Amino acid sequence: MADTDVIVVGGGPAGLSAALFASKNGLDAVAFDTDKTWMHKAHLFNYLGIRSMDGDVFLDRAREQATADHGVTLHEETEVTAIEQDADGFVVTADGEDHTAAYLVLATGANRDLAEELGCAFTDEDVVDVDVTMETSVADAYATGAMVRAEEWQAVISAGDGAAAALNILTKEKGEHYHDFDTPADV
Ligand SMILES: Cc1cc2nc3c(=O)[nH]c(=O)nc-3n(C[C@H](O)[C@H](O)[C@H](O)COP(=O)(O)OP(=O)(O)OC[C@H]3O[C@@H](n4cnc5c(N)ncnc54)[C@H](O)[C@@H]3O)c2cc1C
């Protein structure tokens, strides 16, 4: 039995989005991040719904939304150094400790080393090969954001990739297509 449902490696837009969607919809989600996200260099004018926002402000809000609002466990300044697959899912090593999960979401930006070590297939462009749900050639392991594209690197695309991965995991867990639709009367 794994420690948690979903482990996310990376806390940029892709990783935080995946973790948020998973945790908001009832899965235990644990994320690890070394805070080297390109968002520290960005100022957003092109993220739909956000007219102008510094990348650092975006990150603060995204982290708060994922953790305080939706229950993600975020290990900041914590590097994942190894990942293996076993009969129960994935064993992720960080700070010398092993953490286990049924599902894995990789969101490590332009660094694709962990995906390579895990044995994920790569495309001719040397990026991680995924289908439209962001699942890699390794079952139940997903790759999202900059690591699956040679170009077209944009925050909004990474956030969408993370959401797609989490919704596919939720679909597998619930046994039917899962939609995260909120229609509250009071907002
Ligand atoms: C100068 C510059 C300006 C930009 N301006 C814009 C812009 O105006 N608008 C826009 O939409 N996009 C912009 N971008 C692109 C945008 O920043 C990226 O598309 C986006 O950050 C990619 O998100 P991601 O989650 O895929 O990866 P990243 O944001 O790179 O996040 C990956 C995270 O994973 C962590 N990580 C990596 N390996 C490990 C590990 N082993 N263990 C734990 N954590 C790990 C990293 O530290 C990092 O925090 C800009 C990029 C740059 C370089």
Automatic annotation (TrEMBL):
Residues 5-41, 62-157 form the FAD/NAD(P)-binding domain. InterPro entries: FAD/NAD-bd_sf, FAD/NAD-binding_dom, Ferredoxin-NADP_redctase_2. The keyword Membrane does not apply. Keywords: Flavoprotein, Oxidoreductase. One of its GO terms (molecular function) is oxidoreductase activity. It comes from the Archaea. This is Thioredoxin reductase. It comes from Halarchaeum rubridurum.
